[in-house]
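G., the chain you wanted modeled:
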Amino acid sequence: MALAKKKKRFFEVDMPIINKQTQLQAYELEEIESRNMIYDLTRILKGKNIIMTLQVKIEEGKAVAHPKKVQLLPCYIRRMMRKGTNYVEDSFLAQCKDNQMRIKPFLITRRKVSRAVRKALRNKAKEELIKYTETKTSDELFEDLMRNTIQRELSLRLKKVYPLSLCEIRMLNIENSKKRGE
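Predicted structure as tokens:
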């Protein structure tokens, strides 16, 4: 006797951080548990090339996707770079209320500047971002990044060291999670 074939179905996945829904294909709802999905936010953020990696969790019989990583694409950075400028980038771990986050800021100066100014910008950016993340949860950080509030506040603080033409967070990633078991 032939066994009945299982058929893949589409399951609705809710993404509360951007108030959208999408569909994932699987045999059962439990199969999409802890599946990673990549979502392009370029149209939502008006041309800023950002991709978000989300991890699916099953909560009360519904699939919900929580952000795990936000990354600015290199093509956007290349488009913003101009001749006669310097860039400053860094990578460090910062502790927020519920997770440990890897933050990679990316700054572009208006003109060529000395190494001492670039170092001062890097140190001030790290200090301000660590101070900012201590009071927030990881979900609040992802929302603030998408609303551009982190970048705006950081740019205003760094303007006192040297005015910037671009102040972005190149990558925000959850390294170690306490809450969701990621």
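The helical segments are 74-80, 115-133, 138-147, 149-158.

Shout if anything looks off.
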